[in-house]
Amino acid sequence: GKENVDSRYNRGRGGETTRFHTVNVAQPVRFSRKCPTGWHHYEGTASCYRVYLNGENYWDAVQTCQRVNGSLATFTADQELRFILAQEWDLEEKTFVRKDQRRFWVGYQYVITNRNHSLEGHWEVAYKGSSEVFLPPDPIFGTAMSENENVLCAQLQCFRFPTLRHHGLHSWYAENCYEKSSFLCKRSQTCVDIKDNIVDEGYYFTPKGNDPCLSCTCHNGEPEMCVAALCERPQGCQQYRKDPKECCKFTCLDP
Question: What InterPro entries does the database record attribute to this sequence (predicted)?
């Protein structure tokens, strides 16, 4: 919104003095965040993504994603996968893999159907959630495989070098599910308020943006039916500062 700090005096027809107070004017607002801090938003799927760098086995990674209202990531289209590969995931040095690459647990499992001369099998979605999910190509088999395991878990390998990432180069591994690895969680976009709190469906909140005087309803991760409060400037104060996160809260700067 716009604001003007001074009051204006204008002459009416009868010579009387009419005083006008300038107030905030509601303007169209762009909402800057649809994901909590630390998550990456992708408009194509209206989803949020986060890599957890602490090494966990596949089953512990599943539970960690569920605790943040998500699941291990699966992908619906090649464009979504390319978005994931192009992101900077704060790939600091860890002990799990080589310096130039990173593997993440993702939401697929490889079911072995024949162990004769080569491992034959097929990919499945680990947790049935999305009706439209593409399955990975034939995997590279990990080095920590057990002869008794008939189900292996999927790791998506990303590269640290930007030129490799932006060309979409990657690999799929079928690995022992009890190996420890970083992992990629995916969740639906959500409403995030001005103080970075997550807002549940149907609740009122003030979205992140430039206007702390908006009150909106959270609907499918989007702020809708927004109402703006209009604030009169503080009385008896010529110079003041508006609080960026509290509606109609001012600090007077007068001597």
Answer: C-type_lectin-like (IPR001304), C-type_lectin-like/link_sf (IPR016186), CTDL_fold (IPR016187), DGCR2-like_CTLD (IPR034010), IDD (IPR042378), VWF_dom (IPR001007)
- Which of the following CATH numbers is that of domain 40-91+98-188: 3.10.100.10, 2.60.40.10, 3.30.505.50, 1.10.260.40? 3.10.100.10
Domain layout of the chain by residue ranges: 40-91+98-188, 191-252
Distance, CA of 176 to CA of 162 (rounded, Å) = 29
Q: Name the β-bridge partners of 52.
A: 183
188 vs 211: CA distance, rounded Å? 25
Tell whether the model's pLDDT for residue 158 goes beyond 70: yes
Q: Which two tokens stand for residue 133?
A: 């999910």
Q: How confident is the model at residue 160 (pLDDT cuts 50, 70, 90)?
A: low
- pLDDT 10s digits, 38-71: 888 888 888 889 999 888 999 999 999 998 888 9
What value does the mean pLDDT of the chain take?
76
Q: Answer for the pair 37, 208: CB distance below 8 angstroms, yes or no.
A: no
